[in-house]
Structure prediction request, 1194 residues.
Amino acid sequence: MTNPTEHALPANSMVESREGDFGCTVMDLRKLMELRSTDGVDQINVHYGGVMNLCSRLKTNPVEGLSGNPADLEKRKQVFGQNLIPPKKPKTFLELVWEALQDVTLIILEIAAIISLVLSFYRPPGEENKQCGLPVSSPEDEGEAEAGWIEGAAILFSVIIVVLVTAFNDWSKEKQFRGLQNRIEKEQKFAVIRNGHIIQLPVAEIVVGDIAQIKYGDLLPADGILIQGNDLKIDESSLTGESDHVKKSLERDPMLLSGTHVMEGSGRMVVTAVGINSQTGIIFTLLGANEGEEEEKKKKAKTQDGVALEIQPLNSQEGIDNEEKEKKAAKLPKKEKSVLQGKLTRLAVQIGKAGLIMSAITVLILILYFVIDNFVIHRRPWLSECTPIYIQYFVKFFIIGITVLVVAVPEGLPLAVTISLAYSVKKMMKDNNLVRHLDACETMGNATAICSDKTGTLTMNRMTVVQAYIGDTHYHQLPSPDVLVPKVLDLIVNGISINSAYTSKIMPPEKEGGLPRQVGNKTECALLGFVTDLKQDYHAVRNEVPEEKLYKVYTFNSVRKSMSTVIEKPSGGYRMYSKGASEIILRKCNRILDKRGEVVPFKNKDRDEMVRTVIEPMASEGLRTICIAYRDFNDGEPPWDNESEILTELTCIAVVGIEDPVRPEVPEAIAKCKRAGITVRMVTGDNINTARAIATKCGIVTPGDDFLCLEGKEFNRLIRNEKGEVEQEKLDKIWPKLRVLARSSPTDKHTLVKGIIDSTVGEQRQVVAVTGDGTNDGPALKKADVGFAMGIAGTDVAKEASDIILTDDNFTSIVKAVMWGRNVYDSISKFLQFQLTVNVVAVIVAFTGACITQDSPLKAVQMLWVNLIMDTFASLALATEPPTESLLKRRPYGRNKPLISRTMMKNILGHAVYQLTVIFFLVFAGEKFFDIDSGRKAPLHSPPSQHYTIIFNTFVLMQLFNEINSRKIHGERNVFAGIFRNLIFCSVVLGTFISQIIIVEFGGKPFSCTKLTLSQWFWCLFIGIGELLWGQVISTIPTQSLKFLKEAGHGTTKEEITKDAEGLDEIDHAEMELRRGQILWFRGLNRIQTQIKVVKAFHSSLHESIQKPKNQNSIHNFMTHPEFAIDEEVPRTPLLDEHEEENLEVPKAGTRVLLLDGEVTPYANKNNNAVDCSQVQIIASHSDSPLHSLETSV
Prediction:
């Protein structure tokens, strides 16, 4: 892929002297890693004399690993490089300021302010000319006229403030997410052997020469060469684009590349290239070669999981696709990211249109009035010396118009969304939710269905053997070793110790008197614990038969649901130990050991009897049953590759029942979900009786309910037609009642999730959350609206496909995510209710004021201040409300519930009526009421009047108290409930009040304010507090009686999308709205873009931080693996009716799922993935068991 360029060579030869210590150079190893399969084998054998010889050249021991001596490690880093790819520099504060300045409205305001400034210094000779027909100021106002520049300067100053606030927000958010990313980067670890011990090492610390342990589900952090492997299959599609899994073996293809996924098996490799010298790193360097595109690419390259920020793989194919996509993306609107963003964008566009029209009309009326008054009624001639004065008037009108627009457009909206999401994401970390995609947080609030794994999520994932059936006897308590025949005991101990991943082990407890720690695969740990309970030592057996001596290993995968290990017998011949799901293994047994340890025939009727008397009773108590068996091959070597012949005629040694207790907090969490209108379904690989027993304990199924518990086979039979294709109508009959899906494969899980999402039963499209931890859960996690991966047991592949990572693998954390999601939605609604009241009032006041008095009662600078408190501060105050339990007492809103409900519309209009009444009273009768001079029809540059200062002050104070009203949006009466829990809110309200006092008392000319007396202040405060009382009046009026109220901010209807979107791959509804109105400039949308950039900045950094991005450009988008190609480029299409009852679904338009369900996919059986739910137990970092997840199966 890379040509060692000429300039690289001399550099290399200089290093040569230092590298004399190692038997090969960076370049040699780079060239070696570019070879594939047999070429690689030849090169290793010819040039290096075999893998062992290569290890000695790299001064490492294939069994013990490196010594871990710091000087040696440092030297390796210098010679061969470090295992990280340098990240992109963050944007500087100045760049962010420049971005904030791109806002169209701000630019218009700046231009207007500059014109105003220039004109204010112009003193035309005709100034005194009465003929200009202007109310010319008296001599004592001359000083004031000199101060005409102040307004322009103040506008410029307030623009600077707005820009700095925006830039600072963006900057601090980016900083937060980088911090988060660094934390996660440090947590990314990989199993490496140093000094004979397996340790978990941060990925960045891995050096060339390290011996790494690899296991199913890993994402390789560096390039290496296989030293020893069991049944190893790798998914290299992220580098090659080939979807078939590649078998790796010492003889045929020992080359392992960074960024590829281990789909099956386990093994050890010697690391040969790290960081920018690894295959992924080389591709990165190539991408970064041309500066122009570098920006884009680096964003993608940012980082991902197992590769820990350090290294990301890249699809060569994807590289090309990305360029195509970028070209397309340049022409096409961006795809809509989330439901909320879609609704907000539409709403902002609508408000922006209205604001634009209002401001245009305002300017027109002002100019027409001025022209008609001067030139038509008073019949004055247009004098050239008066022109600058007229222009000054026109500029003033223009500024008023722009001010109306500024206030009309709620550019605080995107800010509120960003703040709310950023705040939630930060807090959710504490609730064990690591959010990788910001919008997942808000989508979770709408979730109507959760498909959860069983093991580890609903249960504690601490497995123990509690019952056993050995030699015709069912032991309800564990037997003591003396009861068992020595020969049988020996078979049990060997069958468990040898036939389980050597990485699964029982460690001494961390605290005195604690439980022993289980490391690795939990089911295997339970079995090893059983060996220890029988007073035997599994270590001794493993020392006698080290991993190198295992003749053949059939690792666990979701298709086999069993694991077998073959060893050579000292006397000649082979013995194979097998273990796995009891139904599966017993079907393959034709003999069994009796009480005396003798082998006796085991017929079908015996098997049925055993299922009835042993396995079903165990399963109905919620135990997982595992069968241990063996088979001897004495006559020559059988055909090992023909699995069906090998895995038959087994002899059953024992069946054990493993208990995994339900987490104590789960039943309550599930009850909360039910109250919140969320259906929980359990999808597990366990057998149906165990699954039903656990589901009953959790409260997923309650006796007397009308529900279904199905096994995977039965489920497929019911939903597929004769051709084996899934039929949506058949699926629609099943899923509403389905609560437990047992013995399911990852494909079944994906079929179910897709079926529920695409279903059109009911008024609303379902929003589905899924938990998963196995490599094969990728498609289901990708397909779901929100995918939760397990932080402890999850494989790197699952984490990469997910939206949120549960750092404690606990179901209750999902319920917390629902609460936060609903809270985000409510926070936005609170902010909207507040913001729109201000907008309606300010626009009407500016408009009517301008039309009647030729001047807006609220000046440009005042409007900008109102805008600042309304947008920035209020979004801060209302978007950071902490969630309360009451959020879980209502049903989900559904995808097309309007943002502004009728109750909110009632509040907005109700408060607007109060505020407008007050302000118009003050404008037209305020001077009489307060006995002061009127501020109406003041000449150009006249000093600020007390009259208009009172109007401005009252207006701001009313907003301030209405901010408190806005804390509740469902018509609650107590608006102060929990106000002291939100310190940000209290400080914002207080801060705004103090700033207002300073502005009024000391703001002077720039703010068009003059000092007020104490009694005037009290009147203003009194009117402001009236807002709170008025709020109580409004909440007394029942919403139902106000039939005329409309909602606003709907989702997009299905028809609109199909009508507008023909020919588009990706649709953004805002963009469509724009196309209809061709309104391409106004502040709200611009701000939304800025905020989306910020959200992207988050995304890039958040993702990087959090394992890896989901977006199409992520360097190794796990979903580009063809078998997972699930095309999510099309927005989700909600229906229009907003019923809150049953949120069912409309299909995602155009979602192509190439992963056909069921056996249809050739890959279903290849992904050795510890599948499904039940198998949450696998510990990502440690378990490299080939049996990787027995639990699943069983």
